[in-house]
Amino acid sequence: MSKILTGLQPTGAITLGNYIGAIKQMKELQDNYESYIFVANMHAITIPQDSEELRSNTRNLIALYLACGIDPNKNTIFLQSENPYHANLSWVLECNSYFGELSRMTQFKDKSSKNANFTVGLFTYPVLMASDILLYDIDYVPVGVDQKQHVELTRDLAERFNNKYGDTFKVPEPLITKSGTKILDLVNPSIKMSKSSENKKGVIFLLDDLEVARKKIMSATTDSECVIKYDMENKPGISNLINIYVSLTGKTIEETENEFTGKNYGEFKRCVADVVVDFLSDIQEKYRSYLNSTIIEEILDNGKNITINEAKIKYDLVKMRIGLTR
Ligand code: TYM
Question: Which architecture, in CATH terms, is 200-288?
């Protein structure tokens, strides 16, 4: 069976973009793939975090995975920080990564330009991500398009290592869906919907109050054409709402365009808002029940044991290949 893996950072509130780009794909693929999903809490500390907040966000994210339909019987669910091999392999890969190629990562360029005191961890972050993937012989990595460059770097690092030291790593591929590639900010549809956006009106958080979420959709930026047609370049606002609608209903873009032919933007937004609110309400109810259960501890203990055993085999092979053994 082919393998898939993804991770999310437990920084702040999880967005509809995170769900559509990554979690939803995992949910849909979990029946047919050997699946791994984790909390990238070590990636989170590349920027300053309050320790209590990080701890609770981490646990909350596991409850959210479960609420979103990630089945613990079909997925290995774990915390990155509970498996020391991620950081160990990351060091080895850092010693096989070039300063130049890491300097070219767009996310690094973007984040470092916003804060002059950025950490070295922010710079080496993509290498830790490569380790997350390469430890487990992963075939596909379901992500949004903003992570594509990091998966491509992972491929380069795997191939470079294999060429230098002999076949060691499987070379993974990113898995990006058309409608989930990049969910856009509702107020400013020229940027992606992001947790860290300053204007929270453009971002649907999975734990948003339902009426607040409805208002965000109703006041989403559109255009003056009054035609519900998918055209990312000229009608990003409407196309973004179509992407959200398509992702949550399972309808196609064409079906959606036909459904709303002749309707105005207000009617369309109301339907999108209904779908989003139904979806959030279902998740939030499940989330609350998982948060109060002991199942999270059991799941994480299990995930820790499974991934440490598996990662040890790969890391031992890596050490042997490069001469780090006696
Ligand atoms: P993170 O936490 O920034 O985002 C988690 C996932 O959500 C996707 N995403 C989006 N997809 C569509 N539209 C959006 N607006 C949107 N915003 C975010 C991201 O592409 C991502 O898939 N480095 C990763 C975490 C990570 C990881 C890994 C992922 C660490 N190791 C190994 C895969 C495999 C990150 O910071 O994602």
Answer: Orthogonal Bundle (1.10)
